[in-house]
Amino acid sequence: MAADHLPIVETQERTLHWRSEDDIDTTAHAWARTPALRNAFIALHGELGAGKTTFVRHLLRALGITTRIKSPTYAVVEPHETPDGLAIFHFDFYRIADPREVDDAGFRDIFAGPGIKLAEWPENAAGRIPIADLALKMEAMIDDTRIVTLRANTELGALLLAAA
Prior knowledge:
By secondary structure, the chain is α/β, with parallel strands linked by helices. It is about 25% helix and about 25% strand. It has 5 helices and 7 strands. Strands 1-7-6-2-5-4-3 form a 7-stranded mixed beta sheet, covered by helices on one side. A hairpin with a 5-residue loop joins strand 3 (about 75-80) and strand 4. Helix 1 (about 20-30) crosses helix 2. The longest helix is centred in the first third of the chain and has 12 residues, at about 20-30.
């Protein structure tokens, strides 16, 4: 399937209201127990400060990552590995000015390989990365809570959506 074509599954959506980091942690732990996560691509959308990196930190902790988890804003990708050997790639495409930079960096090989892929600002790499299995759109509210819209684009994404 070409990366710029929508998958042939019915898109499913769900909205969550994260009132605290405990709610984020609950979602992260639910997904960490879901086998479908092991090869999923999750796209994280939202303005600066919406909670994208915070969510990634909770998910990586739920998967057993104990080392420092930093934002890959300057490195573009930070690789991690769970205690059982699962590869995780955390991308931040915020500084990508031209999607062709993604080709030059060789990220297609990572997306084609096994493991979890988490991408912040995926719209900056549009057409160069596959359609996400699950897309999260995070909105920070004035009371510091988050409204999170989950959209499953594939069968794998639908399994994650059901586990949220």
